[in-house]
Amino acid sequence: MTKQAKEILVAIIGAGGVGGHFLTQLATLVNQTPALNVSLCYLGIIDRVYWTSDYSAIDLANALDILAEKGQDPISLEQTIDYLAKAPSKVILIDNTSVQSIADLYPRILGSGISIVTPNKKAFSGTYDLWKEAFEAARSGGSLIEHECTVGAALPVLSTLRTLIAAGDDIHRIEGVFSGTMTYLFSTFSPVDGPASTARWSDVVKKARELGYTEPDPRDDLNGMDVARKLTILARIAGLKTESATSFPVKSLVPQALETVPSATEYLEKLPAYDHEMDELRATAEQHNNVLRFVGSVDVQSGALSVGLRQLPKMHPAAQLVSSDNIFSFYTKRYGDRPLIIKGAGAGGEVTAMGVLAGLLKTVDRLN
Amino acid sequence: MTKQAKEILVAIIGAGGVGGHFLTQLATLVNQTPALNVSLCYLGIIDRVYWTSDYSAIDLANALDILAEKGQDPISLEQTIDYLAKAPSKVILIDNTSVQSIADLYPRILGSGISIVTPNKKAFSGTYDLWKEAFEAARSGGSLIEHECTVGAALPVLSTLRTLIAAGDDIHRIEGVFSGTMTYLFSTFSPVDGPASTARWSDVVKKARELGYTEPDPRDDLNGMDVARKLTILARIAGLKTESATSFPVKSLVPQALETVPSATEYLEKLPAYDHEMDELRATAEQHNNVLRFVGSVDVQSGALSVGLRQLPKMHPAAQLVSSDNIFSFYTKRYGDRPLIIKGAGAGGEVTAMGVLAGLLKTVDRLN
């Protein structure tokens, strides 16, 4: 960090699971690191927004209270962009939401010279055009995009991939378990240790939901789209022009007949009728002394992407994941047969917020 | 990489196992990336040196041939520093050696405004004073130090640790197997899979030496100092003022009576007489269904560092390493019980050279 850092203004959208932790972490860090010289001028959530018309600093430690007391009805994103574009200093927008309509405006935001730091996957795993427009707009606007934490939260996944490529390595294949929810489900349903599991799939899903390991509607995890989005981002950074997160085979774990069932409750009620399907898959895996894991894989040389269930030997590093850990294996020319592996918690408010904060620090450093 | 990068001059010392690969990788990259705008003005090896008095570019693709044909007897390091300090552009010195006397001059080099990129551990794992002087000299000289590849070669170990700290996480403990040589020796002598090994320790060491997995004198690996140096670097980045790599307990695997035996050959001849000691350690581990691994560990909270043999359960990630892989586990406040893990080849000319190259790119980017 440069000692005499120029002031940089920060605008934050979102104060939920990630955003709440982020505000706390940022307030602590700014308090401990006066040289950092970043200040908050805008804080917005879905139904409320607070900003300073003269871009003066909002007290970070009390930002949520100030928003509650003095906040107004939300203004449009267009108005927000106009306000930020007129700021007297460089501006970083922190998008701590997963909202598509904000992601759609990234090209316009970046083109206005506003940098973006975000865990929101939507702009990077949507259409290839949106991806291209965002990065082109950043170039023309002199702004920066930092989205390391869209994949693996605070794990150094995208930066490692980018460094390997920049240093001239050839990426052959990237493979792993990119969803903490899937790790929890399958390490419970098809464990490596102990006697063969007799757990019923529907019970494991219900339990995971009760523990908060799934989205309120578990189908949002089980349809595989979260993994497909992360795989799309990895593939694009590896140089593929992947058209979208639905342009390659994704094996959904939601029985087709339950896809259109209106409520999560009804889905969970009807799920036991399909337990035999998962039982059969598990039995087949056990016959070969394997376990089931939900794996994402991109073969960079052939351009093939796939997301789905796989049988893995028990000694496979991805077989041994527990809790909500992720694992990313990079097979490259220089690493040969034994991949570079990064493993750890890939979700959760606290580590994801830390990933956003690390991205903010990197961006501040590069803007200075 | 900025598009209109300023020219940056590169001086390279060393063209051995790492340095040779580095020259090849750099030549390819510069050829493919004209925007990079780095050029070589100085190449030195132990008994020969070539430099351009007007700092004009040496043809990278033929640098070793040019050195062989036109090189002269080496000049002193002081003369080299004077030459580089007078350069018309910013200069990065690549120290691809493991020479202590070069490391000792880092403060002077950095204080002269010359940046350093290096896999040479000596300056960072020597006395704490040398470490402090080097970083202070860089601050006063406006130069940069990049030594990511001193630990784990091209694995993102130090950058990950620095990012966690910068983003406000508390590092509790760092632990792992930091030596590819030790991984090879113990995954052979005390394997996870198959029947209990009956391999003799002295045979495993001999075989490892024949395969080039150890230094010419295996005692240089087996005394534990390579691991102790890496642990010292990790501990210092984690905030400890570790006095040196000999200021904490390091369990040498060289029997005391063989420490002073003059030649590697004699050491290997006499080693079988000590096989029973390693047999007993392995038998004890097997009784508990464990394996032996050579582990480095720093408890950041208590400040305790240790390097030595440990019994590990077979499912422990460090137990399952093969070939010459390294593993680094970061236990932190935000990651809780399940550490952030980085694993992969942590030695070898090609990946270490890639680590140096990645460090060069990062430094060029920051100097621009």
TrEMBL record, chains A, B:
NADP(+) binds at G14, A15, G16, G17, V18, G19. NADPH binds at T97, K121. Its EC number is 1.1.1.3. The active site is at K230. It is an enzyme of class 1 (oxidoreductase). InterPro entries: Asp/hSer_DH_NAD-bd, Bifunc_Aspkin/hSer_DH, HDH_cat, HDH_CS, HDH_short, NAD(P)-bd_dom_sf. Gene3D superfamilies: Dihydrodipicolinate Reductase, domain 2, NAD(P)-binding Rossmann-like Domain. Its cofactor is a metal cation. GO terms for biological process: homoserine biosynthetic process; methionine biosynthetic process; threonine biosynthetic process. Keywords: Amino-acid biosynthesis, Methionine biosynthesis, NADP, Oxidoreductase, Threonine biosynthesis. Residues 156-360 form the Homoserine dehydrogenase catalytic domain. It catalyses: L-homoserine + NADP(+) = L-aspartate 4-semialdehyde + NADPH + H(+). Pathway: Amino-acid biosynthesis; L-threonine biosynthesis; L-threonine from L-aspartate: step 3/5; Amino-acid biosynthesis; L-methionine biosynthesis via de novo pathway; L-homoserine from L-aspartate: step 3/3. Catalyzes the conversion of L-aspartate-beta-semialdehyde (L-Asa) to L-homoserine (L-Hse), the third step in the biosynthesis of amino acids that derive from aspartate (the aspartate family of amino acids), including methioinine and threonine, the latter of which is a precursor to isoleucine; production of homoserine leads to a branch-point in the pathway as it can either be O-phosphorylated for processing to threonine, or O-acylated for processing to methionine. Belongs to the homoserine dehydrogenase family. This is Homoserine dehydrogenase. It comes from Exophiala bonariae. The lineage of its organism: Eukaryota, Fungi, Dikarya, Ascomycota, Pezizomycotina.
